[in-house]
Write a structure and sequence with these properties.
Multidrug efflux transporter AcrB transmembrane fold; five-stranded antiparallel sheet; 753 residues; single chain; 4 domains; alpha+beta; 24 helices; Alpha-Beta Plaits
Length: 753
């Protein structure tokens, strides 16, 4: 693979104008397709095979008028009892008429006619039924709905439209550019060159633009949830910058070694590019693997993010070499562009006919321990840190394990649910309506359930409804059961159920199971429980059941892939255990902040609550790929030096010394990008995803990979690289370390260099 990528890198540089032109054509073409073909995103979370989804499907077939999106308008009078006065009745009637006139609304229910009024006569609930689902309600309809009651508010009344119809897609604002700006600063500091930093950032931004344009171009044929494009943007930007950083960093080192630009790029893509391809493949496989969970919206999210990561890899190994060709030696700091010897490395003019250092077997791929190789500067922070960690390896391992174990403690209290209006940003229309309903009626009215009774004949349904109503009313934690609504043919009835507790309360989850158990024995009719609250509970439970399976799949995959890369048994096991430590500690911190509310103000979280249902599976998939990034970039250098004669201890120090600076920069960039989605977006779902990813990257890069890993490698010594001979013969050689490239360059005639 290294040899193939070496040729690809050189070819991209030599035909750089063509490469840039091709990518620009792709960008423009996909951009135009995105403009004309972009479809709406979905805000609902469907779950085929669950009882709640079967109930919705049944309603859409037999009772279409009740299958659309619903809205609830909370009304608060200026004084107690005012709803019963002629003036109050007139105001409520006007609000109902305004709601009925909203485009797409089938009808609105007068609360005074059905008794949807609080005991003190000050609060009322206007139920609004839309013809289409929440995803079919456009921005104009939603805006008209939010304006209902404006005249009443001018008279001192409080009117708050809410309900599932307000669920729109989260918007990405310009403030996320702050994360990109921080990443740019990190690049400038790392490279000491505006040109190098600019090339790296430009390459990543082009890759993100191509990926996002392609995603939106497909959105007319593939249903995307509102979070899918944001996740794709978040990951595509982070890995795009990182992958370009790794290749640019190796290219600069090759230039300092005196290689000509095309050779420097070729070897950068052949070595660092091999690691980029492998790391990108692990991210893509982990994200695409979300399909095994068999949850449609999660599958789409995973594939969308995997697509942008794939584009980031392709851009890094083709467009980046082309851009580096335009930059020449300007990617180096100004003081190093003249070709003077650096840290004992001879300039290009002091090299042999084929550009190699005197005495080195393969030009430009020599390591510090090879005869005649240039002396390395091993006084940097990476080398000093590696020597400290390996010297104190046992205390470092114990402290690291204990610290991460303590951080993981809150994980045992983790609760999962789909988001509800109670955790929306304070001041948002959905949150205002939710708080007003809770204030006047209690939390159960914000998460009402719906029981669907469907029989083959109207007589069967009519006979079953009283029985179902009685059973539901006798269930603990049920506050009220509304009178049934009948379909035009009388075969389907819909009963509203009001719990005593809120939508994400543990008691409500128990209530859902209790109701289903209570009505499960009724014959001759189908009795199904649904509603937004029941759907959220079903989704959360199915995701929780799939989590162990997915975790085993990811861990098993990591062991297999790393075994192929490093040809070792203990290194993959160590990497997988380190990944599990990262995940556990990340879950613990995220639960502590977003569920338990510790330090919630620091991330701008208004109301703590359960974590979004798909966060654990999503986090495992993404962090797995990112963790393998750092594992590969650090440990591959350790193996390379060990294979070429260094002791296991020195190889560990070398790997850390050479990789620490780049991995640190890469981690800081990812944390900056993910952090931009934490501090500058108000959507709590996106906040929690960005926070968990930022924390996970920080823990994995700085605690696990750069601290615990070298300590464990030092403790294992040469045993870390043990592999049974029979297994070594069975495993294919993927050549991620460039051994094949070394042989190719060694056999090449000097005149062809």
């Amino acid at each position: 693979m290294a040899t193939l990528l070496y040729r690809l890198g050189r070819g991209s540089l030599r035909r750089r104008r063509l490469v840039v032109a091709v990518w620009l054509v792709v960008l423009v073409g996909l951009g135009l397709a995105a403009v004309f073909l972009r479809g709406p995103t979905a805000s609902n979370f469907t779950m085929p095979g669950t009882e709640s989804q079967r109930a919705l499907d049944l309603l859409s077939q037999q009772f279409p008028a009740a299958s659309g999106a619903t809205g609830t308008i909370a009304v608060k009078a200026p004084a107690d009892g005012q709803l019963g006065t002629p003036q109050g009745q007139a105001v409520v009637k006007e609000i109902v008429q305004e709601a009925t006139s909203v485009p797409g609304v089938v009808g609105a229910v007068d609360p005074l006619a059905v008794g949807a009024v609080s005991p003190d006569g000050r609060y009322a609930l206007v139920q609004v039924q839309f013809a289409g689902g929440s995803d079919e309600v456009d921005d104009a309809q939603r805006a008209a709905y939010e304006k209902v009651g404006a005249s009443a508010e001018a008279q001192g009344w409080q009117v708050a439209p809410g309900g599932e119809v307000l669920g729109g897609e989260p918007e990405v604002g310009s403030t996320e550019a702050i994360g990109v700006a921080v990443a740019a600063v990190v690049l400038v500091i790392t490279f000491g060159s505006l040109v190098a930093a600019g090339m790296t950032m430009l390459n990543a931004l082009i890759g993100v633009a191509v990926g996002m344009a392609g995603l939106f171009a497909l959105s007319s044929t593939v249903e995307l949830t509102g979070t899918a494009p944001i996740l794709a943007l978040m990951l595509g930007l982070a890995v795009g910058i990182d992958y370009s950083l790794f290749i640019t960093s190796r290219h600069r080192q090759n230039l300092l070694d005196g290689l000509p630009p095309d050779e420097a790029v070729g070897r950068a893509v052949g070595t660092a590019g091999s690691a980029v391809v492998f790391a990108g493949a692990t991210v893509v496989i982990a994200l695409a693997g979300l399909a095994v969970v068999d949850i449609p919206f999660l599958t789409v999210m995973g594939l969308a993010a995997a697509g942008t990561v794939t584009v980031a890899v392709l851009v890094a190994i083709t467009l980046q070499p082309a851009l580096l060709g335009f930059a020449g030696r300007k990617v180096l700091p100004r003081r190093l562009r003249g070709g003077a010897p650096i840290d004992g490395v001879p300039a290009a003019t002091d090299r042999g006919a084929n550009g190699s250092l005197p005495g080195t077997p393969v030009d430009g791929l020599a390591t510090g321990h090879e005869p005649g190789a240039a002396a390395e500067n091993r006084s940097g922070f990476g080398f000093r840190w590696a020597r400290l960690v390996t010297r104190l390896r046992v205390p470092v391992i114990l402290v690291g394990l204990l610290g991460l174990g303590l951080l993981a403690v809150p994980t045992s209290d983790m609760r999962l649910a789909l988001p509800d209006a109670g955790t929306a940003a304070v001041g948002s229309p959905a949150r205002v309506s939710n708080d007003l309903i809770t204030e006047g009626f209690g939390p159960g009215f914000t998460g009402r359930l719906a029981v669907v009774v469907a029989g083959d004949t109207p007589q069967a349904t009519a006979a079953a409804v009283p029985q179902v109503t009685a059973l539901v009313q006798r269930t603990d934690d049920v506050l009220a059961v509304a009178p049934p609504q009948l379909s035009p043919d009388g075969r389907t009835a819909l009963l509203g159920v009001v719990p005593k507790t809120g939508p994400t309360d543990a008691a409500t989850e128990t209530l859902v199971h209790d109701i289903r158990h209570a009505v499960g024995g009724i014959r001759d009719v189908d009795v199904l429980l649904t509603g937004a609250t029941a759907i959220g509970i079903d989704v959360s439970e199915k995701l929780a059941d799939a989590l162990p399976i997915y975790l085993v799949l990811v861990v098993g995959l990591s062991v297999l892939l790393l075994m192929l890369v490093f040809r070792s048994l203990l290194v993959p096991v160590k990497a997988a255990l380190g990944f599990l430590l990262t995940v556990a500690a990340t879950f613990g911190i995220t639960v502590g902040v977003f569920q338990q509310g510790h330090l919630a103000d620091l991330v701008g979280l208004d109301t703590p609550g359960p974590l979004i249902s798909f966060l654990p599976i999503l986090l495992i998939g993404i962090l797995f790929g990112l963790a393998m990034d750092y594992e590969v970039f650090l440990v591959s250098r350790m193996r390379e030096d060990f294979v070429h004669g260094d002791t296991a201890q020195q190889a560990t120090i070398n790997g850390m010394g050479h990789g620490a600076r780049v991995v640190t920069a890469a981690a800081l960039i990812m944390i900056s990008v993910f952090g931009g989605f934490v501090f500058f977006l108000h959507d709590p779902v996106i906040k929690s995803i960005g926070f968990a990813l930022a924390v996970g990257v920080a823990i994995d890069a700085f605690v696990v990979r750069m601290t615990i890993v070298p300590a464990v490698m030092s403790l294992l010594g040469r045993h870390a690289w043990w592999l049974p001979k029979w297994l070594g013969r069975a495993l294919p050689n993927v050549d991620i370390e460039g051994e094949g490239l070394r042989a190719h360059l060694a056999d090449r005639e000097p005149a062809k260099v």
